[in-house]
Each structure stands twice: as structure tokens, then as C-alpha cells.
């Protein structure tokens, strides 16, 4: 799952407008961000096997720290706690926002279960593993990604407000970057090495989150006042 994770972030943004879309982009992809780091550290392992599935050449050998059900629950709690304890002047509905950050992190696991082969462990690497293997059905996999991403984007656009508008050109750039990256990963050549995969994973997740934060910047009080004056 790739686009679907970002669709969840877009929808969750409108449930709690105070949350930055950039924060939610990191949250929904936190297990993948950690996976990239743990690959470089040698704590988790994968390899490139062209044709392993119809959608990705990656064979995930072991990743219970970042992608087990237990691990995802723990990272969800950690992320929620970090957000809640982060210094801020805006403390209204702060615990609700922290809970949504935790939910965003947790959402990664059930979405991955839909597409992965049975390689997502419940606890440790020797535990039972889940996966419905939609990656072996390209039509179903792409349709699911499009449905979840499109649905999230629709919620994001439909539930805008004066303080939290849709900055059309900016969010279009983010959407096109995500779709283009997804199509390149599906139809492009296999990556040259797992090191390239890990570094690209980390850099992309952080870069697109920064871009999303820029695209979703809320309107300041000064901008609101200027808009009111311009309509008089």
C-alpha cells in the first residue's frame, strides 16, 4: 500500500484541522520510515526479487519491529505520546489530536494487510503472519489504492473551511507527486539495491511530508482580515 496511506492522512486532517497535514503524512507512513532506518541498521531485512509479486519486486524477509501488529500498536502509542507532549501554545483539543496521530500510525497495518503477501507478523518474526496478497492482482491493487486515495482527497476538499482552505495548486502538486511516484514504482525498473530502497524511502517520506505541510498551511488571522476587507 502506498497511495492509500496518504488518502487516510488527507481524510484525518479534516477530522482535526489543527493537525498539520505534514504531521499526518509522517504518521501514516511511520512504519515505513522506521523500516528504512532499520534496514540501514541491519535490524530488519528484505531483498529485491524481480517478479516476486506483480506489483513490487521486494521480498520482505523480516520486519517485526516496524511492521508487526504489536510493533505498530507500540509505535502508535509512542507517536501519540510524543505529539501530546510536544510544546505548543494551542492546547485546545490537544488530546484528540494526539489520538488521531496514533490512529494514523495504526492505520498503516490493516491497509498493508490488504495488499501484502502473508508476511506481516502479529508479534515476532516467528508468529503468525497476515496478508491478503492483492499485490498479485494488479487491477484490484491499483483500484484499491485509487479508491482510498481518491476518497481521502475528496474528504479533504469537501470539508475545507475559511481557516483551513484547499490551496488548489499546492495540493495538486502533492497529489501529482504521489501518483507519479506510485506509477514509477509499479511500472519502472527494479531498484538497484536495498540500500537505495532504504535511503529513498526515508528521504521521500520526509520530503513529501514537508511539501504537504507547505501545501496545507492554515490561513493566518492577518490573511483572514485582509480577505474580509477585500470583500467589503
Description:
The chain has one domain. The strands form 2 sheets. A two-stranded antiparallel sheet has the order 1-2. Strands 3-4 form a two-stranded antiparallel ribbon. Strand 3 (120-121) and strand 4 form a beta hairpin. It is built from 11 helices and 4 strands, in the order H-H-H-E-E-H-H-H-H-E-E-H-H-H-H. The chain has 232 residues and is mostly helical. Helix content is 64%, strand content 6%.
Average pLDDT confidence is 92
Q: How does the helix and strand content classify structurally?
A: mainly alpha
Radius of gyration: 19 Å
What amount of the residues lies in strands? 5-15%
Q: Give the CA-CA distance, first to last residue.
A: 48 Å
Largest sheet features: 2 strands, antiparallel
Strand segment count:
4
Number of domains: 1
**Strand order within the widest beta sheet:** 1-2
Helix content: 55-70%
Low-confidence stretches: none
- Helix and strand sequence: HHHEEHHHHEEHHHH
Q: What is the molecular shape?
A: globular
Number of helix segments? Answer: 11
Amino acid at each position: 500500500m502506498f497511495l492509500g496511506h496518504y488518502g487516510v492522512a488527507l481524510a484525518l486532517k479534516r477530522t482535526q484541522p489543527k493537525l498539520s497535514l505534514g504531521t499526518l503524512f509522517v504518521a501514516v507512513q511511520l512504519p515505513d520510515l522506521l523500516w528504512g532506518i532499520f534496514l540501514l541498521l541491519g535490524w530488519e531485512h528484505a531483498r529485491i526479487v524481480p517478479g516476486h509479486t506483480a506489483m513490487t519486486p521486494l521480498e520482505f524477509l523480516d520486519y517485526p519491529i516496524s511492521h508487526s501488529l504489536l510493533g505498530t500498536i507500540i509505535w502508535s502509542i509512542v507517536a501519540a505520546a510524543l505529539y501530546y507532549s510536544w510544546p505548543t501554545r494551542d492546547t485546545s483539543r490537544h488530546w484528540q489530536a494526539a489520538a488521531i496521530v496514533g490512529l494514523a500510525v495504526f492505520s498503516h497495518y490493516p491497509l498493508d494487510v490488504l495488499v501484502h503477501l502473508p508476511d506481516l507478523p502479529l508479534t515476532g518474526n516467528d508468529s503468525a503472519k497476515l496478508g491478503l496478497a492483492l499485490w498479485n492482482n494488479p487491477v484490484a491493487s491499483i483500484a484499491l489504492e485509487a479508491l482510498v486515495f481518491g476518497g481521502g482527497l475528496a474528504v479533504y476538499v469537501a470539508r475545507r473551511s475559511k481557516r483551513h482552505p484547499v490551496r488548489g495548486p499546492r495540493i495538486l502538486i502533492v497529489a501529482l507527486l504521489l501518483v507519479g511516484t506510485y506509477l514509477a514504482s509499479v511500472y519502472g525498473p527494479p531498484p538497484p539495491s536495498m540500500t537505495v530502497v532504504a535511503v529513498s524511502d526515508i528521504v521521500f517520506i520526509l520530503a513529501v511530508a514537508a511539501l504537504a505541510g507547505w501545501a496545507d498551511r492554515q490561513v493566518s488571522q492577518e490573511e483572514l482580515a485582509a480577505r474580509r476587507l477585500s470583500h467589503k
